[in-house]
Design brief:
Order of helices and strands: EEEHEHEHEEHEHEHEHHEHEEEHHH
Number of strands: 14
Number of helices: 12
């Protein structure tokens, strides 16, 4: 195994190009501070969900450097492979980082690696997904509330006069504890109010799997027998909507989502997707960075995390739990645009100008 050395971007042979740990600031020039500068590893789960590389990674790195100018950041993406992420954990533990920010591919499978880090005296901050093992802190959104927001929005979209409407549930990857929380929250709202015609768990959160599953649901239930689609995130919404359109389902039933991806926001404006859940990545990354820097400097995490969660071992640890926001066509301007998440120009591409005008964006 090769470990990181100053001034060199190194990968382990077993990880091919999937593991890109840059020893000195994710490929940037080595900041001042030399060998005693705190080193923080940021380990992301996949590139399937756009947010990890386009939102979370740059925001985490920016916030870490703002509060710790001499910190060095090592970054790796597991590309959805548990074995790769385990090897990445082994690598950063061997190289002696001071803290790890981990978004686990599979929370249960990473428990052993988290234990290994703890045994080496390296605190692990579980980010967005709650990993098993002796983590030191946790930063995320209230997952069950995400599901409740989606469930409430779906009921509202189907209307009060729909008699026992039938829906399809396109849940996330069951190995992701967030997916379990989303599903639990949604069912707490939907149970007894709708008939669940088909329900699927979607491995790796892959849109193409959602496409295939939705096609199967349409064949089994009938194109005119689906009044709503619970999709756990925007990728699954995209796959579901593509399948509905390919199977000539019209009008499209309301479809939920999550993550406020740009494509999803455009679909909402176009009337193809009913809603998404906006989880402001800025506050999450800010809290994650603050907790990582505190951990690397060995200062109390309770100064950052005023909430508490229990680890898989039953121990309460400091946490930051943020509040998600439901977004529909009429609230895009007062949420995503107001917060600077997207500009009107980014959303309102030429084909959507008329639709943007109708929903008050222009």
């Amino acid at each position: 195994m090769k470990i990181c050395v100053r001034g060199t971007a190194v990968t382990m042979t077993a990880l091919w190009a999937a593991m890109t740990i840059a020893a000195c600031g994710s490929g940037a020039a080595d900041p001042p501070g030399g060998g005693n500068a705190p080193r923080i590893a940021v380990l992301l789960p996949d590139a399937t969900t756009a947010r990890w590389e386009t939102q979370d990674r740059p925001l985490l790195e920016k916030n870490i450097m703002q509060s710790c100018a001499d910190c060095r950041i090592q970054h790796a993406n597991a590309r959805g492979d548990v074995a790769i992420q385990q090897e990445q954990m082994d690598s950063v533990i061997t190289s002696g980082v001071d803290a790890i920010v981990l978004v686990p591919v599979d929370s249960r499978s990473l428990g052993t690696a988290v234990t290994k880090a703890a045994d080496a005296g390296i605190p692990v901050i579980s980010y967005d997904r709650l990993s098993e093992g002796p983590i030191s802190g946790y930063v995320s959104f209230d997952g069950e509330e995400v599901g409740r927001l989606q469930g409430r929005a779906l009921l509202k979209a189907m209307g009060p006069h729909a008699m026992s409407p039938q829906i399809v549930m396109m849940n996330g990857d069951p190995s992701d504890p967030n997916a379990v929380s989303f599903k639990k929250g949604a069912l707490s709202v939907l149970t007894g109010r709708v008939k669940i015609g088909k329900a699927y768990d979607t491995l790796d959160w892959r849109a193409e799997i959602a496409y295939t599953n939705m096609s199967g649901a349409i064949a089994a239930l009938g194109a005119d027998r689906i009044q709503g689609v619970y999709a756990a995130n925007d990728g699954l919404a995209s796959g579901s909507i593509s399948s509905l359109k390919a199977n000539k389902v019209a009008p499209l039933p309301p479809v939920t989502g999550q993550d406020a991806e740009l494509g999803a926001v455009r679909r909402i404006v176009a009337g193809e997707q009913y809603m998404t859940v906006y989880k402001p990545f800025g506050p999450e990354a800010s809290a994650g960075a603050a907790m990582a820097v505190a951990a690397a400097r060995r200062t109390p995490l309770t100064e950052v995390g005023r909430d508490k969660v229990r680890t898989s071992l039953g121990k309460p640890v400091p946490a930051v739990l943020l509040t998600p926001v439901s977004v529909t066509a009429t609230t895009i301007k007062d949420t995503l645009v107001k917060d600077g998440f997207y500009t009107v120009r980014q959303i309102c591409v030429p084909r959507l100008l008329a639709a943007c005008s109708e929903v008050g964006l222009i």
